[in-house]
Sequence to fold (333 residues):
Amino acid sequence: MLNRRHFLTGTAAVAATGALAACAKTNNTTSASSTGGAAKTLTLGFSQVGSESGWRAANTQSVKDAAAAAGINLKFSDAEQKQENQIAAIRSYIQQKVDVISFSPVVVTGWDTVLQEAKAAKIPVILTDRSVDVSDPSLYVTLIGSDFEAEGERAAHLMEHVLQGHTGPVNLAQLEGTTGSAPAIDRTKGFAKVMAASDPTWKIVVTQTGNFTRDGGKQVMAAFLQSHPEINALFAQNDDMALGAIQAIEAAGKKPGVDIKIVSCDGVHDGFVAMTQGKINAIAECNPLLGPQLMDAAKQVAAGKTDLPKWIKTKESDFTQDQAAAALPTRKY
Ligand code: GZL
Ligand code: ZN
Fold:
């Protein structure tokens, strides 16, 4: 196998025999690769929240699969739900001079400084999944993610649907997502907005974070049932906390989906299975498959396009128990 130097000499020899076209093509390729002019592989630095839920696992897989399919060199880090780990990861991507930085911010605040460092380093930033509260919106190019306030409203409408024909008071428990995260803040807001306009006898008697994990949902729901035995409806802000709460409800000798109606967000596989078992009554889907849109956006910003929409909203829908069995076989996550 000729090494590169010999090969280049060979190419020059071909030029001498007048096969200019072949040589020009080869030279172009050679000269391009020797000057690095050929299409450079794009390097994307991605900081993921953690691995707290089935949604997160599906989101991570989507990012990795889409990077591979797009021929993008992905540097991936898992922050274990700690903001300081995400900030450190973003700083390391800046030092490595990646072409684009992307992350799903665990909470909405505390990003101005590190995003100003990325801006100073002229590295464009794309948000996925969750948004940030920053003083200067130019600190990121676009957010690819869901409308969480709409998800909260959708969940409340699903709860109305599930409670149709219910007589007597509705005593709601709410399991909130990670404190300070965009989904927790906005799902809470959206759910409350519809509740306020709904039947005044409905009230949220207790609300607390379960940090988007199954264990969190189980522990907090067990405590809820101790302090509020009158609970007959639960809004869990993700399926994993609903699945944990189901364990606590059953341990307390009650039937989830019957004695306590349950609506959650996400629509992961196990959430659909719980609906087919009659344990979750309805789910407001939150689509984790953001990878392909992220890679498209990364290629565009790397090519200098900066006029992307500030928010690329994710498409998603709602599911009730009766639709779950039919939908399950074709679910992608
Ligand atoms: C929502 C995402 C949330 C999911 C949870 O887009 O940020 O975080 O609802 C996940 O399952 O942990
Ligand atoms: Zn309504």
